[in-house]
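Quick start: read one record
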Amino acid sequence: MSIRFTIFAATLIASHTAHSATVLGQGPQTPQQRINSGQQLVANATSSAVPEEALAQAARQRAGEFGPMARPTVPLGQIQKAWDSAGRDGGVHTQVKCETCVYRVRLREFMLTAITLPEGVKIENADVADTSRFDTRIRNENTLVIKPLAAGVDSSMQVYTADGEVYSFYLRAETVNSKHIPDLLFKIEAPRVPRSALIASANGAPLLPLANQPFPKVEGATSPQAGDFVQKANIDPSKLRGWGKYKLWGSDNSLMPEMVLRDDHFTYIFYGEKWNDLQLPTAYKVYDKLDELVNTRVSGSTYIIESTNKLITLKSGQTYMCIQYLGD
């Protein structure tokens, strides 16, 4: 029986009693006496129908107090161990824009990857071959994000710009137990142009990007001054050395190059037939057992490291390769 019905019945009985029942030898009850009698019957009926704890709990709940609730959780065991040893630049991959390149992006399930095109490039649209496995959204003019909806799958993506350019991507989605750190940020940068080349351009020379190209010689051009950025990958075969003078060791052979050479400015890594399937590693020069990040670039199928340090480490996820120069 509900509380409201009990109160209604008690009120009805009280009203009936007040009108029909009087104590022998006494006159009829006054209106106030009938009210007091009815209220007493209602109180008695309510207290007998509802437990005191329920009334106290209802009062606390009206004040917003609902008490604690124990909710034990079960660990899911879905943390990727490769991140335990990742450096501060782990998950960031930078590549120089290449007209004939397919950019290879490593993705991971349950993680989002941002791809940024060079500054000034405006994305018009993007197509993913397998929309049931990869979800992509354009976030701003030169940035889009992509999320794999499954693991152990791959696909391709084409990105179209307002200038009519097409950027082609190979997408690979890996599992949470992958030994490789995914690319959370994949940056494509425009080729850098040294200041000295800009000076030459101002004197009528064509503007050449920083790549495997010589600088133009222009009559009357201003010579580079101290502080100019003049590093350039002008490979002079007569200055290459290091054949047979490198010691290589690492976690496995996946990053093992076929040949390593150097000149007075750079270290050149040649991967041969591995090149097309290789996820380019990050390069570090080692000083006092500490890794220091160095710039890298690609010229054709040559991986160029902007350092001639005697000990260089290449890293990709948990995979590493040490390259030590044994010459003078």
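DSSP finds four helices and 18 strands in the chain.
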